[in-house]
Amino acid sequence: MATERRSQLSRATKETDVQVTLLLEGTGLSNISTGVGFLDHMLTSLAAHGRFDLDLQATGDLQVDCHHTVEDVASLLGEAIDEALGDRGGIERFGHAVIPMDESLASVALDLSGRGLAVLRVTFPSPSVGGVPTSLINHFFEVLARSARITLQLSAEGRDDHHLAEAMFKATARSLRHAWQRDLNFQGQPPSTKGVL
Question: Is position 37 within any domain?
Fold first, then answer.
Protein backbone atom coordinates (compact mmCIF):
# COMPACT_ATOMS: atom_id res chain seq x y z
CA MET A 1 0.00 0.00 0.00
CA ALA A 2 1.28 3.44 -0.92
CA THR A 3 2.33 5.78 1.86
CA GLU A 4 0.02 8.64 2.72
CA ARG A 5 1.30 11.99 1.54
CA ARG A 6 0.90 14.55 4.28
CA SER A 7 2.57 17.63 5.71
CA GLN A 8 2.31 19.88 8.73
CA LEU A 9 3.83 23.36 8.68
CA SER A 10 3.60 26.56 10.67
CA ARG A 11 5.02 30.05 10.39
CA ALA A 12 4.74 33.04 12.69
CA THR A 13 5.80 36.56 11.79
CA LYS A 14 4.98 40.02 13.14
CA GLU A 15 2.11 40.11 10.61
CA THR A 16 0.60 36.62 10.67
CA ASP A 17 0.59 33.25 12.40
CA VAL A 18 -0.39 30.35 10.11
CA GLN A 19 -0.61 26.58 10.73
CA VAL A 20 -1.39 24.06 7.99
CA THR A 21 -1.98 20.31 8.17
CA LEU A 22 -2.57 18.62 4.82
CA LEU A 23 -3.37 15.06 3.69
CA LEU A 24 -3.48 14.48 -0.07
CA GLU A 25 -5.19 11.07 0.32
CA GLY A 26 -8.19 12.63 2.02
CA THR A 27 -11.90 12.96 1.48
CA GLY A 28 -12.24 16.74 1.30
CA LEU A 29 -12.63 17.35 5.02
CA SER A 30 -11.57 20.80 6.15
CA ASN A 31 -11.28 22.90 9.27
CA ILE A 32 -10.41 26.43 8.21
CA SER A 33 -10.28 29.71 10.09
CA THR A 34 -8.33 32.69 8.76
CA GLY A 35 -10.40 35.60 10.01
CA VAL A 36 -11.28 36.34 6.39
CA GLY A 37 -14.68 34.76 5.75
CA PHE A 38 -14.50 34.79 1.98
CA LEU A 39 -11.05 33.15 2.00
CA ASP A 40 -12.37 30.47 4.38
CA HIS A 41 -15.21 29.78 1.93
CA MET A 42 -12.82 29.48 -1.04
CA LEU A 43 -10.37 27.23 0.83
CA THR A 44 -13.20 24.99 1.96
CA SER A 45 -14.20 24.63 -1.70
CA LEU A 46 -10.58 23.97 -2.70
CA ALA A 47 -10.27 21.09 -0.22
CA ALA A 48 -13.71 19.64 -0.99
CA HIS A 49 -13.24 19.55 -4.76
CA GLY A 50 -9.56 18.58 -4.53
CA ARG A 51 -10.59 15.72 -2.19
CA PHE A 52 -7.73 16.45 0.21
CA ASP A 53 -8.02 17.01 3.96
CA LEU A 54 -7.00 20.46 5.16
CA ASP A 55 -6.72 22.00 8.60
CA LEU A 56 -5.66 25.62 8.25
CA GLN A 57 -5.66 28.14 11.08
CA ALA A 58 -4.44 31.70 10.65
CA THR A 59 -4.46 34.98 12.53
CA GLY A 60 -3.19 38.19 11.01
CA ASP A 61 -3.07 41.96 11.20
CA LEU A 62 -6.60 42.39 9.86
CA GLN A 63 -6.75 45.79 11.52
CA VAL A 64 -4.46 46.87 8.66
CA ASP A 65 -6.20 44.89 5.90
CA CYS A 66 -6.37 41.25 4.75
CA HIS A 67 -3.39 41.36 2.37
CA HIS A 68 -0.80 39.75 4.67
CA THR A 69 -3.21 37.03 5.79
CA VAL A 70 -4.25 36.04 2.26
CA GLU A 71 -0.65 36.13 1.01
CA ASP A 72 0.84 34.14 3.90
CA VAL A 73 -1.95 31.55 3.80
CA ALA A 74 -1.27 31.01 0.10
CA SER A 75 2.46 30.78 0.73
CA LEU A 76 2.29 28.22 3.54
CA LEU A 77 -0.42 26.17 1.82
CA GLY A 78 1.78 26.01 -1.27
CA GLU A 79 4.76 24.90 0.81
CA ALA A 80 2.61 22.23 2.45
CA ILE A 81 1.56 20.91 -0.97
CA ASP A 82 5.19 20.88 -2.09
CA GLU A 83 6.29 18.99 1.02
CA ALA A 84 3.45 16.47 0.78
CA LEU A 85 4.33 15.71 -2.84
CA GLY A 86 7.88 14.76 -1.86
CA ASP A 87 10.02 13.91 -4.89
CA ARG A 88 6.82 13.84 -7.00
CA GLY A 89 7.58 10.32 -8.14
CA GLY A 90 4.82 8.21 -9.68
CA ILE A 91 2.27 10.99 -10.15
CA GLU A 92 0.19 11.94 -13.18
CA ARG A 93 1.93 15.36 -13.09
CA PHE A 94 -0.50 17.23 -15.37
CA GLY A 95 -4.06 18.23 -14.59
CA HIS A 96 -6.76 20.33 -16.18
CA ALA A 97 -10.38 21.28 -15.59
CA VAL A 98 -13.05 23.57 -17.01
CA ILE A 99 -15.59 24.55 -14.36
CA PRO A 100 -18.80 26.57 -14.83
CA MET A 101 -20.29 28.49 -11.92
CA ASP A 102 -23.58 29.82 -13.24
CA GLU A 103 -22.62 32.59 -15.68
CA SER A 104 -18.87 32.29 -14.90
CA LEU A 105 -16.36 29.88 -16.41
CA ALA A 106 -12.84 29.02 -15.27
CA SER A 107 -10.26 26.94 -17.13
CA VAL A 108 -7.13 25.61 -15.46
CA ALA A 109 -4.21 23.63 -16.81
CA LEU A 110 -1.34 22.90 -14.46
CA ASP A 111 1.90 21.01 -14.26
CA LEU A 112 3.45 19.82 -10.98
CA SER A 113 6.73 20.60 -12.68
CA GLY A 114 8.78 21.88 -9.76
CA ARG A 115 8.82 25.28 -11.47
CA GLY A 116 6.59 27.83 -9.77
CA LEU A 117 4.84 30.08 -12.27
CA ALA A 118 1.31 31.42 -12.63
CA VAL A 119 -0.13 32.90 -15.82
CA LEU A 120 -3.56 34.38 -15.09
CA ARG A 121 -6.06 35.68 -17.59
CA VAL A 122 -8.76 36.94 -15.25
CA THR A 123 -10.54 40.27 -15.00
CA PHE A 124 -12.96 40.80 -12.14
CA PRO A 125 -15.95 43.12 -12.72
CA SER A 126 -15.62 44.75 -9.28
CA PRO A 127 -12.74 45.91 -7.06
CA SER A 128 -13.67 43.62 -4.17
CA VAL A 129 -15.67 40.52 -3.25
CA GLY A 130 -16.61 39.44 0.26
CA GLY A 131 -14.46 42.20 1.70
CA VAL A 132 -11.37 40.97 -0.19
CA PRO A 133 -9.82 43.06 -3.00
CA THR A 134 -10.22 41.06 -6.20
CA SER A 135 -6.59 41.77 -7.04
CA LEU A 136 -5.75 39.62 -4.00
CA ILE A 137 -7.61 36.65 -5.48
CA ASN A 138 -5.20 36.66 -8.41
CA HIS A 139 -2.28 37.25 -6.05
CA PHE A 140 -3.33 34.21 -3.99
CA PHE A 141 -2.91 31.96 -7.03
CA GLU A 142 0.43 33.56 -7.97
CA VAL A 143 1.84 32.95 -4.49
CA LEU A 144 0.35 29.44 -4.28
CA ALA A 145 1.89 28.42 -7.62
CA ARG A 146 5.29 29.82 -6.68
CA SER A 147 5.47 28.22 -3.23
CA ALA A 148 4.00 24.86 -4.36
CA ARG A 149 6.36 24.88 -7.37
CA ILE A 150 3.48 24.46 -9.83
CA THR A 151 3.11 25.84 -13.33
CA LEU A 152 -0.43 27.20 -13.36
CA GLN A 153 -2.33 28.53 -16.35
CA LEU A 154 -5.70 29.97 -15.28
CA SER A 155 -8.31 31.77 -17.37
CA ALA A 156 -11.71 32.89 -16.13
CA GLU A 157 -14.52 35.17 -17.15
CA GLY A 158 -17.90 36.09 -15.73
CA ARG A 159 -20.15 38.86 -14.47
CA ASP A 160 -20.41 37.88 -10.80
CA ASP A 161 -17.25 38.25 -8.71
CA HIS A 162 -18.20 35.54 -6.21
CA HIS A 163 -19.00 33.01 -8.93
CA LEU A 164 -15.84 33.94 -10.82
CA ALA A 165 -13.58 33.39 -7.79
CA GLU A 166 -15.36 30.18 -6.83
CA ALA A 167 -14.98 28.76 -10.34
CA MET A 168 -11.24 29.56 -10.17
CA PHE A 169 -10.79 27.68 -6.88
CA LYS A 170 -12.88 24.71 -8.00
CA ALA A 171 -11.05 24.39 -11.33
CA THR A 172 -7.70 24.55 -9.56
CA ALA A 173 -8.87 21.94 -7.04
CA ARG A 174 -9.97 19.48 -9.71
CA SER A 175 -6.74 20.01 -11.65
CA LEU A 176 -4.59 19.38 -8.58
CA ARG A 177 -6.61 16.29 -7.71
CA HIS A 178 -5.90 14.79 -11.12
CA ALA A 179 -2.25 15.89 -11.31
CA TRP A 180 -1.13 14.42 -7.99
CA GLN A 181 -2.92 11.10 -8.53
CA ARG A 182 -0.52 8.19 -8.56
CA ASP A 183 0.13 6.54 -11.93
CA LEU A 184 1.35 2.96 -11.47
CA ASN A 185 2.91 3.01 -14.93
CA PHE A 186 5.61 5.34 -13.60
CA GLN A 187 6.50 2.81 -10.84
CA GLY A 188 7.33 5.59 -8.40
CA GLN A 189 9.62 7.41 -10.80
CA PRO A 190 9.21 11.12 -11.58
CA PRO A 191 7.18 11.58 -14.79
CA SER A 192 9.94 13.39 -16.68
CA THR A 193 12.50 12.53 -19.33
CA LYS A 194 15.04 14.25 -17.04
CA GLY A 195 14.38 11.66 -14.34
CA VAL A 196 13.60 14.38 -11.80
CA LEU A 197 11.02 17.11 -11.23
Answer: yes
